[in-house]
Design brief:
- The protein is an alpha+beta fold and 280 residues long.
- It has two domains: 116 residues, SH3 type barrels (Roll), CATH 2.30.30.100; 144 residues, Helix Hairpins (Orthogonal Bundle), CATH 1.10.287.
- 67% of the residues lie in helices and 15% in strands.
- The protein has four helices and five strands.
- It has a five-stranded antiparallel sheet with strand order 4-3-2-1-5, with no helix packed on it.
- The two termini are 38 Å apart.
């Protein structure tokens, strides 16, 4: 069934060529021989080697003849209406012209198939490029989320450390008696120790404030990324589906091209091949 369906266009071309053959005149070459005979040729091929020349001709009756160049006095071409040719010549011309038309149709079909394959592959590459770009965006967003979440965790830890330093300095500052013993610079009664502890508390409070801002910024980044990730994931999934469809389309186009090429080879070679010597 497939072969019949695929061969129908070629059959139409063959029938059209046969009909057209009856409308176009045919060039007939008349070889005048030195012995007085004349050979009317539907087509011919010339072979030369130095001064030696040979004509291989197809006569109007379909017979193949070989004429030596030294035996040919002259040759003359004239256009002969198709319906004025002998039956054998008409059949020969129609067959050759139909084969040429079929070959042209097959070549045009192959060119169209190749163009379709190229377009399908180009589309596939475009979709693949889009998928790669979206996948890169998704990967970057995921990496940003990971870094932001790590920044939040580190900020929490650092804030706790700053609180501990602040609380420790505050506790120690409150325990100072204010009595200076004159020996140790860090004795309980050393007033310089109090200045150090107050500076430590101030630095810890400032650091905590900075860390809280950093934590808030990181949390905002995490929130934005979490909102964006589902959209990017959906785009990646859609691009993957589109790529799968594009690959399937490319595969289908290539398969159809191969099927048409295989089907065209079913026809006899005589109906698909242009003969070496075309109708003149």
């Amino acid at each position: 069934m497939f072969a019949l369906r695929t061969l129908l266009p070629l059959a139409v071309v063959l029938m059209g060529a046969l009909a057209a053959a009856g409308e176009e005149p045919v060039t007939v070459t008349t070889f005048a021989l030195k012995d007085g005979r004349k050979v009317e040729a539907l087509r011919y091929v010339t072979f030369s080697a130095g001064d030696f020349k040979t004509f291989v001709v197809t006569a109007l009756d379909g017979k193949k003849l070989t004429l030596l160049g030294k035996d040919v006095a002259s040759q003359q071409e004239e256009l002969v209406p198709f319906d004025k040719l002998p039956e054998a010549a008409r059949q020969d011309v129609a067959k050759v012209r139909a084969a040429a038309a079929a070959a042209r149709a097959a070549a045009e079909a192959r060119a169209a198939d190749e163009k379709a394959v190229a377009a399908a592959k180009r589309r596939e590459n475009e979709v693949q490029a889009g998928l790669n770009k979206t996948a890169d965006e998704l990967k970057s967003a995921q990496e940003l989320q990971t870094k932001a979440e790590l920044a939040v965790r580190n900020a929490v830890t650092d804030i706790a450390k700053a609180d501990a330093r602040y609380d420790g300095a505050k506790t120690e500052l409150g325990s100072l008696s204010g009595v200076y013993d004159g020996y140790s610079p860090y004795s309980w009664g050393n007033p310089r120790r109090g200045d150090y502890l107050r500076a430590l508390m101030t630095h810890a409070a400032e650091e905590k404030t900075m860390l809280q801002y950093e934590k808030q910024d990181a949390e905002a980044v995490v929130a934005r990324v979490k909102e964006t990730l589902p959209k990017l994931e959906a785009r990646v999934a859609a691009a993957q589906n589109e790529l799968a469809a594009a690959k399937a389309e490319t595969k289908q186009v290539i398969l159809k091209m191969k099927e048409r090429a295989a089907a065209s080879s079913v026809l006899p070679d005589s109906e698909l091949t242009i003969r070496t010597a075309p109708v003149r």
